[in-house]
Amino acid sequence: MLDIIKKAAINAMDASNPVIVQPGTVVSINPLEVRLDQRLTLSEAFLIVPESLTRYEIDLSHVHKLSGSPDTEKALTDKIVIREGLAVGDAVILLRVQGGQKYVVLDKAVSG
C-alpha cells in the first residue's frame, strides 16, 4: 500500500512539471532565442524577460537658447545607455514555469 501511495505521489509530481532552474545561452537577440541544450532552443514566444534585462537608454539631446541671440546651440546630442540588456553569448538562468510552457529569464549568470 505504501509503495502505491509513493508511486502516485511521484506520478503527480511528474505530471505537474514543477518549477525547475536551468542554465541557458542567448543565441539571438532579434528575435530573442535562448538555447537550453544541444536539442532545445526557446523562441521569444516561450520566454518571459523582466525589464531589468532589457536595454534602457535615455535621450539627453536638447538645445540651449543663448541670451541676446536668436540662434540656438545644441548642447547634447547623444543617448546614454543605462542598461545594455541581453547580448548574444550571455549565460542566463532560466526558471521553467509550472507546466513547462514558459520560461522566466531570471538573470544573467557570471562566473567568478
Q: Would you mind describing this structure in some detail?
A:
The structure is a single chain. This protein is mainly β and 112 residues long. The chain contains one helix and ten strands; from the N terminus they run αββββββββββ. The strands form three sheets. The protein has a six-stranded mixed sheet, with no helix packed on it. The chain has a two-stranded antiparallel sheet with strand order 5-8. It has a two-stranded antiparallel ribbon with strand order 6-7. A hairpin with a 6-residue loop joins strand 6 and strand 7. The model has no long low-confidence stretch (mean pLDDT 85).
Please provide a brief summary of the model.
The chain is mostly beta strands and 112 residues long. Helix content is 13%, strand content 45%.
* Fraction in beta strands: 35-45%
The computed structural class is: mainly beta
Contiguous helical run count: 1
- What is the 3D form? rod-shaped
- Lateral strand order in the biggest sheet: 3-2-1-9-10-4
Distance between the termini: 49 Å
Which fold name is given in CATH as the topology of the domain at 19-49 and 86-112?
OB fold (Dihydrolipoamide Acetyltransferase, E2P)
Q: Secondary structure elements and their pairing?
A:
Layout: H1 2-16, E1 20-28, E2 33-37, E3 40-43, E4 47-48, E5 56-59, E6 62-65, E7 72-76, E8 79-83, E9 91-96, E10 103-108
Parallel strand pairs: 4-10
Antiparallel strand pairs: 1-2, 1-9, 2-3, 5-8, 6-7, 9-10
